[in-house]
Amino acid sequence: MRIAVVGIGIISAAGMGIAQTLESLRAGRSGIVPEPSHLATRHRLPVGEVARSNAELSEALGVTGTNSRTALLGMTAAAEALADAGGSRSNTALVSATSVGGMDLTECFFEEFGADDRRGRLRLAAHHDCADSTLAIARYCGVDGFTTTLSTACSSAANALMTAVRLLRHGIADRVIAGGADALCRFTLNGFRSLQILDPAPCRPFDALRAGLNLGEGAAYLVLERADEATKMPYCCLAGFANANDAYHQTASSPEGEGDYLAMRWALERAGVMPEEVDYVNAHGTGTPNNDLAEGIALRRLFGERMPLFSSTKAITGHTLAAAGAVEAVFAALMLRHGEIYPNLRFAKPDSRTKLCPVTRYRRQPLCNVLSNSFGFGGNCASLLFTRAE
Prior knowledge:
Shape: globular
Strand content: 15-25%
CATH topology: Peroxisomal Thiolase, Chain A, domain 1
Number of helices: 12
Helix content: 25-40%
CATH class: Alpha Beta
CATH architecture: 3-Layer(aba) Sandwich
Mean pLDDT: 94
Structural class: alpha/beta
Number of domains: 1
Number of strands: 15
Order of helices and strands: EEHEEHHEHHHEHEHEEHEHEHHEEEE
Largest sheet: 11 strands, mixed
Distance between the termini: 14 Å
């Protein structure tokens, strides 16, 4: 059974919606800024921040009351995807991924509560749970079917898309909105800083002198349907997928990139696509020394000297954590629809251990098979294989 992508929606540092995002990608324009504007922090670190406040997001959505930034970003992207797919349809499911959830509101509560345990709005902490943002998105979009939340670190949204395919194949839903949303918050910024994997400058994925990642925020959702029941011309089809876990370390990839390699290999096998048939890889490419080396080794293991074109788009958006798999799946859909590849910014010199050189400039390129990687903490590795719609 073929699964078609019939709608997409996105918000990130690259832009508000598909049109702005596409403009940034084609121009090779990075959305990474020197420091956050909408996050109260004493750290001056570059981030991929959405250029709208919570109040501005709420106004654009026409919502009132208390919503986490994650929920607001998710509602924005999911609503765009649903509209792009032609609007509401019965028996629609929602599979949404997040790591942060409503942590930004929890931080506001504890700021007051920590100073005086008689103060603080407990209702803010009630939004902490990851599923709270999913329910907010479902209510806003009028989802009437199965709803669930995934949280598997940076592979979360990619795993949400895999879940969506299973729901369609088993007849549990006739349409699935799948993706993820994550907002910047102090907990994640401080947590990644404590791991010493944040680059104090804009990140340089796969470069020999890379020094870490830039955190980002955003949301992206794709609307999936069974291809023979598709309500409009698809962007592409999700033909293969796989998840593998090498269980090597809580936060580091294995030196051989075992999970990375297995996820890619199994995704291709499921799709019936040979490695030499892959035209492009949207690499996970965070910019950390460990991740890019492990992924590079895995790419060499799978493709050998016949490396397809590849790049990391995180130099444009920052690392959007749980949303990354969906953000880059949207990019894959756009690449296949328009026949183009988006650049890996700030790459200058290849790592001597892999000798890999990504695409560094926007280029027009007909594509048939695009592989998108999302590799998370704990060795949770996911790969998605998108194919051009017939």
